[in-house]
Amino acid sequence: MDTAASRPAAWTARTLPGWVLAGAALLAGSGQVQAFDLKDVATQAKQLAAKPYAPRPSTLPDELKALSYDQVRDIRFKPERALWRQDKLPFELMFFHLGKLQNQPVLINEITAKGEVRHLAFNRDDFDYGQNKLSPQTWGDVGYAGFRVHYPMNTAKYKDEVVVFLGASYFRAIGANQHHGLSARGLAIDTVGGQSEEFPRFSEFWIEKPKAKSKSIVVYALMESPRATGAYRFEVKPGIDTITDVQSQLYLRGPVATFGAVPLTSMFLSGENQPRRGDFRPEVHDSDGLMVATGEGEWLWRPLINPKQTLTTSFAMKSLRGFGLMQRDRSFASYEDAEARYDRRPSAWVTPQGDWGPGRVELVQLNTPDETHDNVVAYWVPAKLPTAGQPLKLSYQMRWQSEQQQRPPTAWVTQSRVGQGLVALAANEHQYLVEFTGPALDKLPADAALKAIVSSDANGEIVERNLYRNGGNRTWRMTLKVKQVKDTQPVELRAFLQHGNVTVSETWTNVIPPQ
């Protein structure tokens, strides 16, 4: 039972700003408290957007700033201190400590069962400081770096970490039997095209206390940056697919070079299309491709790469049905990493709610020397942005998926291999082996009159193409040899399978980067 006597002493209500008090004002003549909702957060986001950006001052103690990465890792939240554990609720909250890279505190509030908003103040007794010699009793309410939500997703006896909000506007979730991999963000600004990327951050959260039989948890967030503000509502539903329903209301303070909505951030070091010499692991990546479903009905698949230099490509369309960074390859043998378990990293599929209008899905790929860096980001760029002070409202659903993931209805690519066989390639030649599978192909006989429709931009010359049924795994294999006319320029390739006049596969769209 949630009573004042059962709460840790530091969980006390703070003095709330006027906009929150107005949102929680008593309804006239009813004696009831008005529910906290997205409008309350959007009100503050709009007010902040009308003023010059004022970063919240950091009060991080010097001894926390001086901690090393390993010393921060030695500070652990005590599971027995999890919020709502004493109430025996299905969801629990645990918090991240500040230190080193995580040096900006976020404000975290609970929306109680009665609809009241109360601040969750920092409590040093919630943490085990390991071998660190620190003086937390002198810090006061320094705040938290972020939080994670736990829920019994795989077994009733243990509450799994389901979703994490930590750092800037980053968050990530997993479904049943998955391992954390790619992340999402609230917003990306000037990832390309500007002088430097701006990272908006969630500065305050409000979390609804769940009920005894709740199957989902609701989190509100206020986002701030020098050129944008935003209000978010996340409803997280754990399961085989963990579903995150998001409502957002965004405001611009001024012009931006690139406005990246619903950014997904991932890592690609090596794969079947780019093996890494000397690594015992055949592939190392959180995601192996970008999938896009256009409003015109086309499904696109772009295999990811680890380029030598930053590579930005995009797909323009009249409307968007969905996009995601996907981990299609679920075989352990493809990775052979017993610790990282890349075969269990989730795919993240985004489905717009309502018509977002015209725009483009942009993919940015950077070079990375190892798997510790996220070097891939994909996001939606609206063709038209609102003027300063006017809201951009975007609602969408994110599904964090594993084996049962979103796929095109006809057929899709299972692998894109690159390299030569017995015959050596000529200068500037590239050879691909691309395999397709799916229900539209399964029903065709092995001698079906299937053809590969292949095209290239002006910098690519198709030297050879073949398509045949692969008896080894019952896929259809397309082999393709392409000459890169100018090796200082990229080549854009497109290929799909056709039976008669009917398209029976997604479009494989690959880029050969400058050499």
Q: Can you tell me the CATH topology of the largest domain?
A: Beta-galactosidase, Chain A, domain 5
Number of helices: 5
CATH class of the largest domain: Mainly Beta
What composes the largest sheet?
A: 15 strands, mixed
Stretches with pLDDT under 50, minimum 5 residues:
1-33
| CATH architecture field of the largest domain | Distorted Sandwich
Q: Count every beta strand, where a strand is a DSSP E run of 2 or more residues.
A: 33
Structure classification: mainly beta
Radius of gyration: 25 Å
Which word captures the global form? globular
Structural commentary:
The protein is mainly β. It folds into three domains: 1-176 and 197-252 and 391-406, Beta-galactosidase, Chain A, domain 5, CATH 2.70.98.10; 257-384, no CATH class; 412-512, Immunoglobulin-like (Sandwich). It has five helices and 33 strands. The protein has helices at 18-23, 38-49, 62-65, 69-73, 439-442, and strands at 76-77, 92-96, 107-111, 117-119, 127-128, 146-155, 158-166, 170-173, 183-185, 187-189, 201-208, 217-225, 228-237, 242-252, 259-266, 268-270, 284-285, 289-294, 299-303, 311-317, 320-326, 347-353, 359-365, 376-382, 392-401, 412-418, 429-437, 450-456, 460-470, 475-484, 491-499, 502-503, 507-512. The longest helix has 12 residues, at 38-49. The termini are far apart. Residues 1-33 have low confidence and may be disordered.
Which characteristics define this entry?
mainly beta; 515 residues; 10-stranded antiparallel β-sheet; globular
Report a brief summary of the structure.
The chain has 5 helices and 33 strands.
